[in-house]
């Protein structure tokens, strides 16, 4: 039997950037044009095989609305990894992503692995990719462009997160 470890990861970001859509696409390979807004938070699990072991990802999907913001620390405080998502079509959501990254760095788990995820890459790019990747370089983050709609980089972003966790 393959050794297995469980890791909790969390998705943070403005509402409607596609957090739930990314999780559903990865876990169920489904995409909905009218994805229901998330209430509070929910979680799904998916096992990602590695060479010597497997990683059971416990994926916490949070609601982006302001009124749920105070709940976020409950979900990210014990997370080993975070996907901070914004909408590449919407500049305002990039600002919010930077806010969440600061939150994670100051209040998250020590050594939390942070991915900045520019979702909706199938739409017009109103946030500059060079600026975003430069921001990641300066802050020691990983940068991905994804589309939950086309599936672009969706499996890659989650499997790459899983591969960051050292098996001990
Ligand atoms: P959340 O609030 O961050 O969880 O966002 P949702 O997953 O609920 O998605 C909000 C809306 O954006 C829904 O209408 C989705 O169908 C749409 N959406 C999500 N991801 C993408 C994407 O990659 N491309 C496009 N064009 N639309 C997307
Ligand atoms: Mg949602």
UniProtKB/TrEMBL annotation:
SUPFAM superfamilies: P-loop containing nucleoside triphosphate hydrolases (SSF52540). InterPro entries: P-loop_NTPase, Small_GTP-bd, Small_GTPase. Transmembrane segments: none annotated. Keywords: Nucleotide-binding. SMART domains: ARF, RAB, RAN, RAS, RHO. One of its GO terms (molecular function) is GTP binding. Pfam families: Ras (PF00071). This is Ras-related protein rab-5c. It comes from Anaeramoeba flamelloides.
């Amino acid at each position: 039997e393959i050794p297995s470890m469980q890791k909790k990861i969390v998705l943070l970001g403005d509402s409607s950037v596609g957090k739930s859509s990314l999780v559903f696409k990865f876990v169920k390979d489904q995409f909905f044009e009218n994805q229901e807004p998330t209430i509070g938070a929910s979680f799904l699990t998916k096992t990602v095989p590695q060479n010597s072991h497997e990683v059971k990802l416990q994926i916490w999907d949070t609601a982006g609305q302001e009124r749920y913001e105070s709940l976020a620390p409950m979900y990210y405080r014990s997370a080993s990894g975070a996907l901070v998502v914004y909408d590449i079509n919407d500049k305002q959501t990039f600002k919010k992503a930077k806010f969440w990254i600061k939150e994670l760095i100051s209040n998250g788990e020590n050594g939390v692995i942070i991915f900045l995820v520019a979702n909706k890459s199938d739409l017009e790019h109103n946030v500059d990719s060079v600026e975003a990747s430069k921001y990641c370089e300066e802050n020691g983050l990983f940068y991905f462009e994804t589309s939950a709609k086309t599936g672009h980089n969706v499996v890659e972003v989650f499997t790459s997160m899983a591969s960051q966790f050292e098996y001990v």
